[in-house]
Amino acid sequence: MKNRNRKAVCIMSGGMDSTLAAYMMQEQGYEIIAVHFNYDQRTQQKELQCFESIASVLQVQEKYVLDIDFFKQLGASALTDKNIDVPTDGLEEGVPVTYVPFRNGIFLSMAAAIAEKESAEVIAIGVVEEDSSGYPDCREDYITAMQRAINLGTKDETNIEIKMPLVHLKKSEIVREALKLHVPLEFTWSCYKNEDKACGVCDSCRLRLAGFEKAGVKDPIAYL
C-alpha cells in the first residue's frame, strides 16, 4: 500500500529511463510528484505529450510542468540550437554536441525546491552512467555531490536523498526491468531529432534500439 507520507519528486522527460525510475519509485511505495521541463529542446512537444500520458497511467496527483527559456538563449547544444546538427553517424568522441551544459544540475536544483516545498524525502532521476552518451552530469559521483549541496542549502529539517536507480544498468537491462514493471514503453520517446517517427540514427535512438535488440524484444514506437 502506498504510504502518503513518503513522497518522491520524479524528474520525468518522457523518455524510457526517467519513466522507469518513476515506476520504480512507485513500486517502492512513494507517492509520485512528477516534474517535467520544457527547455526549447527539439522534441519538446513530443516529450511533453509522453510525460502527460505517462503521468496519467501512473495516476499522478501532483505534477509540475516548468518552462525554461535559459537553454535556448544559451545555445551550445544540438538539442537546443537548430544551427547545430544532431549527429547521426555514431562516430562522435568525447562529450557529444547533444550535451546541454549543466542541464541536470539546473533540473536537480529546481526539483530540490519542489521537494522542500512538498516535504518529499526523495528526488529520483533516470541518469545512466555506463551506457549513456558520455554526459558529465550523468555521473554517479556528480549526483552524489549534488545531494550533499542540496542538503547544505536547504532547511535543517530538510533531508533529501537523490535516487538514481538506473545509474549502473545497461540499456538492455533497463528494457527488461521496464517490461517487468509494465512500463508503457509505447508512450516513451528517445529520439533527439524527430517528433513524429523516431529517426533511428541519432545516439539516443541507437542506444534505445540496441537495448531492445539485446533484450530480445521489439521497440513499440515507430521509426522512419
From TrEMBL:
Which key words tag this protein in UniProt? ATP-binding, Ligase, Metal-binding, Nucleotide-binding, Queuosine biosynthesis, Zinc
Could you mention a single GO BP entry for this protein?
tRNA queuosine(34) biosynthetic process
Give cofactor(s), names only: Zn(2+)
EC number(s) stated in the UniProt entry for this protein = 6.3.4.20
Q: Which pathway features in its UniProt record?
A: Purine metabolism; 7-cyano-7-deazaguanine biosynthesis
This entry's comment on the bound cofactor is: Binds 1 zinc ion per subunit.
Q: Which GO terms describe its molecular function?
A: ATP binding; ligase activity, forming carbon-nitrogen bonds; zinc ion binding
Residues that, per the record, bind Zn(2+): 191, 199, 202, 205
Family annotation (Pfam families): QueC
Entry binding sites for ATP: 12-22
The reaction(s) catalysed by this protein are: 7-carboxy-7-carbaguanine + NH4(+) + 2 ATP = 7-cyano-7-carbaguanine + 2 AMP + 2 diphosphate + 2 H(+)
Q: Which family does it belong to?
A: Belongs to the QueC family.
Q: Which PANTHER family match?
A: 7-CYANO-7-DEAZAGUANINE SYNTHASE
Q: What does this protein do?
A: Catalyzes the ATP-dependent conversion of 7-carboxy-7-deazaguanine (CDG) to 7-cyano-7-deazaguanine (preQ(0)).
- This chain's protein is named 7-cyano-7-deazaguanine synthase
Which organism does this record belong to? Sulfurimonas paralvinellae
Q: Which gene specifies this protein's sequence?
A: queC
